[in-house]
Amino acid sequence: xxxxxxxxxxxLLCEQLAEQEQFDTLFNCATTSRALAVPALTHLYRAHHKAxxxxxxxxxxxxxxxxxxFVQKWSIMWKSLIASSLGATLFPYCRYIRMLDxxxxxxxxxxxxxxxxxxxxxxxxxxxxxxxxxxxxxxxxRKYERLNIKAIIDAIGEAxxxxxxxLEMISGQLNSSALIRWVPRLPRLQGLxxxxxxxxxxxxxxxxxxxxxxxxxxxxxxxxxxxxxDHKFSQFISAMRPNSLKAIYxxxxxxxxxxxxxxxxxxxxSLTELRISVSNDSMPHLSLLAGCASLEALRIEDAHGTIxxxxxxxxxxxxTINWLRNCENLERLSFVQVLSxxxxxxxxxxxxxxxLRNLEIDSYVLSNSRxxxxxxxHQKDSLSFxxxxxxxxxMFRDDVDILVDSxxxxxxxxxxxxxxxxxxxxxxxxxxxxxxxLLEELYVNGLELTDRILDFVGNLGNLRSATLAGISKxxxxxxxxxxxxxxPGNQGIRVMIDMADPDTMLPDEQVTLIRESLWExxxxxLDYTLWRDPNVSEFEGDSD
Length: 544
Hints:
It comes from Lentithecium fluviatile CBS 122367. This is F-box domain-containing protein. Helices cover 38% and strands 17% of the residues. It is an alpha/beta fold. Among the domains are: 7-46; 61-136 and 144-167, no CATH class; 414-533.
């Protein structure tokens, strides 16, 4: 007679299923036996924030009936979490969770399908006290109720956070009052993702975090309006334990400038990830981040994209280069709308102690960036992700040849995105692709693309995503031959042909045949879009 598996083995198996996002398997385990239910449900809810039903499935292409089913499952997930905090479920689901995403709950409450068909059932039974609505009046004078989503989330958060001892992350549109009430209950809290940074303005918020959350290390802010934002942000950062913050992300310009940059230096030994949005006011203070030399990932986005730093603030430009070169652990580097990006990055690429894995640059002038393109080769042993986008005006053949020669030597690349208009001939792209056998994602523009390039793309045994954005003249034979070349490493591939030449476009029945072949061969999908001249209206020629 076989013996039952020990509890620690069951937990390990369920943990691996959760890591692989095998939610259906975990659910089936939970319904199999009492012994499996606890570890299965523990890891199912611990990873609930990765569930495919969040956001209602987030796929606009699914039929409405299927969409409703997703929203129903989405609401059940949240209802079970909330009800468990009231002791109204068999298992205490909320005690298992590590992340509480109130953005997702807000999206559910604001979903049209939820409001029309599900909300009444959702707020029935134990969840009835959470129903909060405002009485509104229509133009015809009739009254109706509208959910007060902010009040509902505040009430739910008040209940749930009293029963989430393992919670590590909260995200959403929260206010200072909620954080002051909730944080003291969350000793394992590691991070906040805030829609509005003004939630940090009350001095009691950082004080609570400092006192009750010894593991707090991550902050994300989507937006922040108001006066003295730089000072208020720096005060929050300075109130944290020195060298405790590991990751700071600002998704838009939240006013971070000189004071904030200096305050971040007090976390210079701990801060490994920094995403910062700068402006015309804060860009001249960029070099004040020099104290943050332990960075592994850095993303700088210029909200205005108008300052050429080496021309307007050359001393800051040189000091910023010195800072970047001192970041010897740097692996991921991204500049968005930073006009000086290629000049700033070139010395980093040449620094022998730095080994970049990811590099993303847009908004640079390619004709002025020969040294940058040549320097890419110095990172050929480590670089696995490269995304380039910029102004290609004024490029000569030598400029293109230098870029092609450098990129084709980056043989460790798994992701290549060359979002460059009217630069590459088909021969250039074939020369690049032929050398990059490890590619999993490819995005290229070309002046004219034919079946010849498909021969090279089809040889990429690990490719999962291919966007061919140049004006293309592919034939049905060429595309079917491409499909026939796909192997086991191409399962789930998505092929996007964005600019099919109208003169050689394939009829619908041929596109359907290719789609069916791609699905049968590799569970793949095809997007086939006709090129339209941007200078010609799509209504041109229509009669009045």
